[in-house]
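queue> holo job accepted (adenosine-5'-triphosphate)
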Amino acid sequence: MKIAFVGKGGSGKTTLSSLFVRHLAATGAHVVAVDADINQHLGPALGLDEAEAAALPAMGDRLSLIKEHLRGSNPRIACADTMIKTTPPGEGSRLLRVREDNPVYDACARPVELDGDTVRLMVTGPFTDADLGVSCYHSKTGAVELFLNHLVDGPDEYVVVDMTAGSDSFASGMFTRFDITFLVAEPTRKGVSVYRQYKEYAADYGVALKVVGNKVQGRDDLDFLRAEIGDDLLVTVGHSNWVRALERGRPPRFELLEDINRRALHRLRTAADATYALRDWERYTRQMVHFHLKNAGSWGNERTGADLAAQVDPSFVLGESVTTLV
Ligand SMILES: Nc1ncnc2c1ncn2[C@@H]1O[C@H](COP(=O)(O)OP(=O)(O)OP(=O)(O)O)[C@@H](O)[C@H]1O
Ligand SMILES: [Mg+2]
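queue> job finished
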Protein backbone atom coordinates (compact mmCIF):
# COMPACT_ATOMS: atom_id res chain seq x y z
CA MET A 1 0.00 0.00 0.00
CA LYS A 2 1.36 3.37 -0.99
CA ILE A 3 0.34 6.14 1.37
CA ALA A 4 1.20 9.83 1.25
CA PHE A 5 0.98 12.47 3.96
CA VAL A 6 0.75 15.93 2.42
CA GLY A 7 -0.27 19.35 3.65
CA LYS A 8 0.87 22.84 4.40
CA GLY A 9 4.28 23.44 6.00
CA GLY A 10 4.11 22.87 9.74
CA SER A 11 0.69 21.18 9.64
CA GLY A 12 2.02 17.94 11.11
CA LYS A 13 2.85 15.77 8.06
CA THR A 14 6.05 14.46 9.57
CA THR A 15 4.52 13.88 12.99
CA LEU A 16 1.55 11.97 11.60
CA SER A 17 3.68 10.04 9.08
CA SER A 18 5.97 8.92 11.87
CA LEU A 19 3.09 7.95 14.15
CA PHE A 20 1.49 6.00 11.33
CA VAL A 21 4.77 4.23 10.60
CA ARG A 22 5.09 3.31 14.27
CA HIS A 23 1.50 2.09 14.33
CA LEU A 24 2.07 -0.14 11.29
CA ALA A 25 5.38 -1.46 12.57
CA ALA A 26 3.87 -2.32 15.94
CA THR A 27 1.46 -4.68 14.19
CA GLY A 28 4.29 -6.47 12.41
CA ALA A 29 3.56 -4.95 8.99
CA HIS A 30 6.42 -4.45 6.55
CA VAL A 31 7.12 -0.75 6.16
CA VAL A 32 9.29 1.48 4.02
CA ALA A 33 9.17 5.07 5.28
CA VAL A 34 10.19 7.76 2.81
CA ASP A 35 11.05 11.35 3.66
CA ALA A 36 10.28 13.47 0.60
CA ASP A 37 9.43 16.62 2.51
CA ILE A 38 11.22 19.94 2.07
CA ASN A 39 12.25 19.87 5.71
CA GLN A 40 13.80 16.48 6.30
CA HIS A 41 12.53 15.55 9.74
CA LEU A 42 11.17 12.04 9.41
CA GLY A 43 14.37 10.41 10.71
CA PRO A 44 14.34 12.39 13.96
CA ALA A 45 10.58 11.83 14.29
CA LEU A 46 11.34 8.11 14.12
CA GLY A 47 13.81 8.54 16.95
CA LEU A 48 17.14 9.01 15.15
CA ASP A 49 19.57 11.39 16.78
CA GLU A 50 21.18 14.22 14.85
CA ALA A 51 24.25 12.24 13.82
CA GLU A 52 22.21 9.25 12.70
CA ALA A 53 19.85 11.45 10.68
CA ALA A 54 22.77 13.29 9.07
CA ALA A 55 24.34 9.98 8.06
CA LEU A 56 21.30 8.82 6.07
CA PRO A 57 22.12 8.42 2.38
CA ALA A 58 20.22 10.84 0.13
CA MET A 59 18.24 9.24 -2.70
CA GLY A 60 18.75 12.43 -4.68
CA ASP A 61 22.50 11.79 -4.71
CA ARG A 62 22.05 8.22 -5.91
CA LEU A 63 19.81 8.77 -8.90
CA SER A 64 22.27 7.25 -11.37
CA LEU A 65 22.49 4.05 -9.38
CA ILE A 66 18.71 3.89 -9.01
CA LYS A 67 18.17 4.43 -12.73
CA GLU A 68 20.86 1.97 -13.73
CA HIS A 69 19.29 -0.71 -11.57
CA LEU A 70 15.68 -0.08 -12.61
CA ARG A 71 16.52 0.06 -16.30
CA GLY A 72 17.70 -3.54 -16.17
CA SER A 73 17.67 -4.90 -19.71
CA ASN A 74 14.76 -2.79 -20.93
CA PRO A 75 15.63 -2.29 -24.62
CA ARG A 76 13.56 0.91 -24.79
CA ILE A 77 15.89 2.67 -22.36
CA ALA A 78 19.25 2.78 -24.06
CA CYS A 79 21.09 4.28 -21.12
CA ALA A 80 20.38 5.59 -17.63
CA ASP A 81 21.16 9.15 -18.75
CA THR A 82 17.97 9.24 -20.79
CA MET A 83 15.86 8.10 -17.87
CA ILE A 84 13.87 10.91 -16.30
CA LYS A 85 11.80 10.79 -13.14
CA THR A 86 8.70 9.71 -15.05
CA THR A 87 10.29 7.05 -17.30
CA PRO A 88 7.93 4.09 -16.87
CA PRO A 89 9.00 0.47 -16.50
CA GLY A 90 8.60 -1.91 -19.42
CA GLU A 91 9.66 -5.39 -20.38
CA GLY A 92 13.16 -5.99 -19.04
CA SER A 93 12.91 -3.33 -16.31
CA ARG A 94 13.70 -4.38 -12.78
CA LEU A 95 10.82 -4.06 -10.36
CA LEU A 96 11.07 -3.55 -6.63
CA ARG A 97 9.21 -5.04 -3.71
CA VAL A 98 8.68 -3.82 -0.19
CA ARG A 99 9.95 -7.03 1.32
CA GLU A 100 13.26 -7.90 -0.32
CA ASP A 101 16.87 -6.89 -0.45
CA ASN A 102 17.90 -5.05 -3.58
CA PRO A 103 20.63 -2.64 -4.65
CA VAL A 104 18.29 0.36 -4.28
CA TYR A 105 17.66 -0.40 -0.61
CA ASP A 106 21.35 -1.22 -0.12
CA ALA A 107 22.27 2.23 -1.39
CA CYS A 108 19.39 4.33 -0.09
CA ALA A 109 17.60 2.66 2.81
CA ARG A 110 18.62 2.29 6.42
CA PRO A 111 16.94 0.18 9.09
CA VAL A 112 15.31 2.04 11.94
CA GLU A 113 14.34 0.20 15.07
CA LEU A 114 11.09 1.16 16.75
CA ASP A 115 10.49 -0.58 20.07
CA GLY A 116 11.86 -3.83 18.67
CA ASP A 117 10.27 -3.63 15.23
CA THR A 118 12.35 -2.58 12.26
CA VAL A 119 11.32 -0.41 9.31
CA ARG A 120 13.31 0.81 6.34
CA LEU A 121 13.84 4.55 6.00
CA MET A 122 14.75 6.34 2.79
CA VAL A 123 15.24 10.08 2.45
CA THR A 124 15.40 12.30 -0.63
CA GLY A 125 17.98 14.56 0.98
CA PRO A 126 17.62 18.24 1.78
CA PHE A 127 16.03 20.52 -0.80
CA THR A 128 17.86 23.52 -2.17
CA ASP A 129 16.28 26.58 -3.78
CA ALA A 130 16.91 25.04 -7.20
CA ASP A 131 14.86 21.97 -6.24
CA LEU A 132 11.86 24.16 -5.57
CA GLY A 133 12.07 26.04 -8.83
CA VAL A 134 11.78 24.78 -12.37
CA SER A 135 14.61 22.28 -12.26
CA CYS A 136 12.56 19.16 -13.06
CA TYR A 137 15.60 17.25 -14.23
CA HIS A 138 17.31 17.30 -10.88
CA SER A 139 14.18 17.01 -8.80
CA LYS A 140 14.89 15.29 -5.50
CA THR A 141 11.50 13.68 -5.41
CA GLY A 142 12.21 12.20 -8.84
CA ALA A 143 14.00 9.33 -7.11
CA VAL A 144 10.88 8.62 -5.08
CA GLU A 145 8.68 8.74 -8.16
CA LEU A 146 10.93 6.23 -9.94
CA PHE A 147 10.81 4.03 -6.85
CA LEU A 148 6.99 4.14 -6.73
CA ASN A 149 6.63 3.54 -10.46
CA HIS A 150 8.71 0.38 -10.25
CA LEU A 151 7.22 -0.92 -7.03
CA VAL A 152 4.99 -3.95 -6.79
CA ASP A 153 3.37 -3.83 -3.38
CA GLY A 154 0.70 -6.03 -1.87
CA PRO A 155 -1.54 -5.79 1.18
CA ASP A 156 0.29 -5.77 4.53
CA GLU A 157 3.21 -4.01 2.86
CA TYR A 158 3.35 -0.28 3.28
CA VAL A 159 5.27 2.59 1.78
CA VAL A 160 4.57 5.76 3.76
CA VAL A 161 5.74 8.98 2.15
CA ASP A 162 6.05 12.25 4.04
CA MET A 163 5.87 14.93 1.39
CA THR A 164 5.05 18.51 0.71
CA ALA A 165 1.93 19.58 -1.16
CA GLY A 166 4.03 21.65 -3.56
CA SER A 167 3.78 22.14 -7.30
CA ASP A 168 6.62 19.67 -7.88
CA SER A 169 4.36 16.74 -7.12
CA PHE A 170 1.62 18.01 -9.43
CA ALA A 171 3.93 18.59 -12.39
CA SER A 172 5.40 15.14 -12.21
CA GLY A 173 2.41 13.00 -11.43
CA MET A 174 3.77 12.08 -8.02
CA PHE A 175 0.41 12.94 -6.48
CA THR A 176 -1.27 10.11 -8.43
CA ARG A 177 1.09 7.42 -7.16
CA PHE A 178 -0.69 6.55 -3.92
CA ASP A 179 -3.49 4.24 -2.90
CA ILE A 180 -4.56 6.95 -0.51
CA THR A 181 -3.39 10.47 0.29
CA PHE A 182 -3.83 11.87 3.77
CA LEU A 183 -3.90 15.63 3.70
CA VAL A 184 -3.01 17.02 7.10
CA ALA A 185 -4.87 20.24 7.82
CA GLU A 186 -4.92 22.47 10.84
CA PRO A 187 -8.27 24.12 11.52
CA THR A 188 -7.27 27.33 9.77
CA ARG A 189 -8.20 28.97 6.48
CA LYS A 190 -4.73 28.27 5.11
CA GLY A 191 -4.89 24.61 6.03
CA VAL A 192 -8.22 24.27 4.30
CA SER A 193 -7.09 26.17 1.20
CA VAL A 194 -4.24 23.69 0.65
CA TYR A 195 -6.88 20.96 0.80
CA ARG A 196 -9.02 22.70 -1.82
CA GLN A 197 -6.09 23.15 -4.17
CA TYR A 198 -5.04 19.53 -3.78
CA LYS A 199 -8.58 18.34 -4.31
CA GLU A 200 -8.79 20.30 -7.54
CA TYR A 201 -5.62 18.75 -8.97
CA ALA A 202 -6.65 15.33 -7.77
CA ALA A 203 -10.19 15.42 -9.14
CA ASP A 204 -9.30 14.42 -12.70
CA TYR A 205 -7.10 11.51 -11.65
CA GLY A 206 -9.25 9.56 -9.24
CA VAL A 207 -6.91 10.27 -6.33
CA ALA A 208 -8.30 8.97 -3.03
CA LEU A 209 -7.92 11.96 -0.74
CA LYS A 210 -8.83 12.11 2.94
CA VAL A 211 -8.21 14.91 5.39
CA VAL A 212 -6.68 14.41 8.81
CA GLY A 213 -7.41 17.40 11.00
CA ASN A 214 -4.44 18.11 13.27
CA LYS A 215 -3.93 20.26 16.36
CA VAL A 216 -7.68 20.31 16.77
CA GLN A 217 -8.72 21.81 20.10
CA GLY A 218 -12.33 21.64 21.03
CA ARG A 219 -15.69 22.01 19.41
CA ASP A 220 -15.09 25.17 17.35
CA ASP A 221 -12.10 23.69 15.57
CA LEU A 222 -13.99 20.52 14.79
CA ASP A 223 -17.06 22.40 13.55
CA PHE A 224 -14.87 24.55 11.33
CA LEU A 225 -13.21 21.54 9.70
CA ARG A 226 -16.51 19.71 9.29
CA ALA A 227 -18.11 22.71 7.65
CA GLU A 228 -15.18 23.36 5.30
CA ILE A 229 -14.26 19.81 4.41
CA GLY A 230 -17.38 17.71 4.81
CA ASP A 231 -17.12 14.01 3.98
CA ASP A 232 -13.42 14.16 3.12
CA LEU A 233 -12.64 14.73 6.80
CA LEU A 234 -11.61 11.28 8.01
CA VAL A 235 -10.45 11.92 11.54
CA THR A 236 -8.99 14.60 13.77
CA VAL A 237 -6.02 14.57 16.12
CA GLY A 238 -5.61 16.85 19.07
CA HIS A 239 -2.55 17.99 20.96
CA SER A 240 -0.46 15.00 21.96
CA ASN A 241 1.75 14.96 25.05
CA TRP A 242 3.40 11.84 23.64
CA VAL A 243 4.49 13.90 20.60
CA ARG A 244 5.73 16.66 22.89
CA ALA A 245 7.87 14.16 24.80
CA LEU A 246 9.30 12.94 21.49
CA GLU A 247 10.13 16.55 20.62
CA ARG A 248 12.03 16.84 23.88
CA GLY A 249 14.18 13.98 22.64
CA ARG A 250 12.76 11.39 24.96
CA PRO A 251 10.46 9.20 22.89
CA PRO A 252 8.25 7.18 25.21
CA ARG A 253 7.35 3.65 24.22
CA PHE A 254 4.76 3.75 21.48
CA GLU A 255 2.31 1.74 23.55
CA LEU A 256 2.03 4.81 25.78
CA LEU A 257 0.54 6.93 23.00
CA GLU A 258 -2.82 8.41 24.05
CA ASP A 259 -5.76 6.12 23.34
CA ILE A 260 -7.62 8.68 21.31
CA ASN A 261 -4.63 9.15 19.00
CA ARG A 262 -4.14 5.41 18.73
CA ARG A 263 -7.76 5.13 17.57
CA ALA A 264 -7.13 7.88 15.01
CA LEU A 265 -4.18 5.92 13.60
CA HIS A 266 -6.36 2.84 13.43
CA ARG A 267 -8.87 4.81 11.36
CA LEU A 268 -6.12 5.79 8.95
CA ARG A 269 -5.02 2.18 8.65
CA THR A 270 -8.56 0.99 7.99
CA ALA A 271 -9.09 3.67 5.34
CA ALA A 272 -5.79 2.81 3.67
CA ASP A 273 -6.43 -0.92 3.69
CA ALA A 274 -9.90 -0.43 2.22
CA THR A 275 -8.40 1.07 -0.92
CA TYR A 276 -6.67 -2.18 -1.84
CA ALA A 277 -9.87 -3.60 -3.32
CA LEU A 278 -10.09 -0.53 -5.57
CA ARG A 279 -6.56 -0.75 -6.87
CA ASP A 280 -6.35 -0.66 -10.63
CA TRP A 281 -2.88 -1.45 -11.97
CA GLU A 282 -3.90 -0.63 -15.53
CA ARG A 283 -4.96 2.84 -14.55
CA TYR A 284 -1.82 3.21 -12.44
CA THR A 285 0.31 2.34 -15.46
CA ARG A 286 -1.73 4.53 -17.79
CA GLN A 287 -1.27 7.53 -15.51
CA MET A 288 2.49 7.09 -15.28
CA VAL A 289 2.62 7.01 -19.09
CA HIS A 290 0.41 10.10 -19.27
CA PHE A 291 2.73 12.10 -17.01
CA HIS A 292 5.81 10.74 -18.74
CA LEU A 293 4.60 11.97 -22.13
CA LYS A 294 3.73 15.31 -20.58
CA ASN A 295 7.19 15.71 -19.02
CA ALA A 296 8.89 14.43 -22.18
CA GLY A 297 7.15 17.10 -24.23
CA SER A 298 7.60 19.97 -21.84
CA TRP A 299 11.29 19.52 -20.97
CA GLY A 300 12.54 15.91 -21.07
CA ASN A 301 13.13 15.47 -24.81
CA GLU A 302 15.00 18.71 -25.04
CA ARG A 303 17.02 18.03 -21.94
CA THR A 304 18.10 14.48 -22.85
CA GLY A 305 18.21 14.90 -26.63
CA ALA A 306 16.17 11.71 -26.97
CA ASP A 307 12.61 10.91 -27.99
CA LEU A 308 11.37 9.87 -24.56
CA ALA A 309 7.95 8.81 -25.82
CA ALA A 310 9.76 5.79 -27.31
CA GLN A 311 10.50 4.61 -23.76
CA VAL A 312 6.87 3.63 -23.30
CA ASP A 313 6.27 -0.10 -23.62
CA PRO A 314 2.66 -0.17 -24.86
CA SER A 315 1.96 -3.72 -23.74
CA PHE A 316 3.39 -3.42 -20.23
CA VAL A 317 1.15 -3.25 -17.19
CA LEU A 318 2.71 -3.01 -13.75
CA GLY A 319 1.15 -5.39 -11.25
CA GLU A 320 1.51 -8.25 -8.86
CA SER A 321 1.49 -10.83 -11.65
CA VAL A 322 4.34 -9.22 -13.60
CA THR A 323 7.39 -11.41 -13.86
CA THR A 324 10.66 -9.90 -14.94
CA LEU A 325 14.17 -11.05 -15.54
CA VAL A 326 16.40 -10.13 -12.67
N1 LIG B 1 -0.83 16.39 17.31
C1 LIG B 1 0.25 17.07 17.74
N2 LIG B 1 0.50 17.23 19.07
C2 LIG B 1 1.56 17.92 19.51
N3 LIG B 1 2.46 18.49 18.69
C3 LIG B 1 2.29 18.37 17.38
C4 LIG B 1 1.18 17.65 16.83
N4 LIG B 1 1.27 17.68 15.48
C5 LIG B 1 2.37 18.39 15.20
N5 LIG B 1 2.99 18.81 16.33
C6 LIG B 1 4.20 19.65 16.39
O1 LIG B 1 4.09 20.70 15.45
C7 LIG B 1 5.33 20.93 14.81
C8 LIG B 1 5.16 20.76 13.30
O2 LIG B 1 4.85 19.41 13.01
P1 LIG B 1 5.55 18.63 11.82
O3 LIG B 1 7.01 18.86 11.81
O4 LIG B 1 5.07 17.23 11.90
O5 LIG B 1 4.87 19.36 10.59
P2 LIG B 1 5.25 19.25 9.04
O6 LIG B 1 3.97 19.47 8.30
O7 LIG B 1 6.00 18.02 8.76
O8 LIG B 1 6.18 20.52 8.92
P3 LIG B 1 7.23 20.90 7.77
O9 LIG B 1 6.41 21.46 6.68
O10 LIG B 1 8.12 21.87 8.44
O11 LIG B 1 7.92 19.64 7.39
C9 LIG B 1 6.31 19.97 15.42
O12 LIG B 1 7.00 20.63 16.43
C10 LIG B 1 5.43 18.88 15.99
O13 LIG B 1 6.02 18.22 17.06
MG1 LIG C 1 7.85 17.76 7.85
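queue> Residues 281-304 form the longest helix (24 residues).
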